[in-house]
């Protein structure tokens, strides 16, 4: 969709986590959940941009995550023709921004409506990332897609 998601309709949730790796720099992850009204359209744009079912390694896609300072400004799909703008725009932690810059990309995971994105307890960033990943993996009904999106800073 090329306009902002109507904030009065259904919630849009973006959860930003950092996943540590055994080898190499950490991975900046963006989990996206939109309401039922927009979910099918988001899935279509993700698939057209090269996202696949979330199993195994995430494919490189044509998507781009656009950052404006510490805020995630938008996610571009289909060669920039489709723009998804979070409302409100989430602020990324310094660790998330560093991980995204080091790799030059973000792992984007599109989850079904009703996933209820939450992380782990105690505010430990790694526990939050692990808890969120486990919660999405165990999450019940619906398709989960993933893809690697380039990072653009404005």
Shape: globular
H-E string: EEHEEEEHEHE
Give the % helix. 10-25%
Mean pLDDT: 83
* Structural class estimated from helices and strands: alpha+beta
**Alpha plus pi helix count:** 3
Residue share in β-strands: 25-35%
Largest sheet, if any? 8 strands, mixed
Number of strands: 8
Q: List segments where confidence is low: pLDDT < 50 over at least 5 consecutive residues.
A: 1-8
Give the topology.
Blueprint: E1 13-19, E2 27-33, H1 36-48, E3 52-53, E4 60-68, E5 71-77, E6 82-84, H2 94-103, E7 105-111, H3 125-137, E8 145-153
Parallel strand pairs: 2-7, 4-8
Antiparallel strand pairs: 1-2, 3-8, 4-5, 5-6, 7-8
Please provide a brief summary of the model.
This protein has three helices and eight strands. With 154 residues, the protein is an alpha+beta fold.
Describe this entry's structure for a reader.
With about 150 residues, this protein is an alpha+beta fold. It has helices at about 35-50, 95-105, 125-135; strands at about 15-20, 25-35, 50-55, 60-70, 70-75, 80-85, 105-110, 145-154. Strands 1, 2, 3, 4, 5, 6, 7 and 8 form an eight-stranded mixed β-sheet that branches. A hairpin with a 4-residue loop joins strand 5 (about 70-75) and strand 6. The radius of gyration is 14 Å and the shape is globular. Mean pLDDT is about 85; it is low at about 1-10.
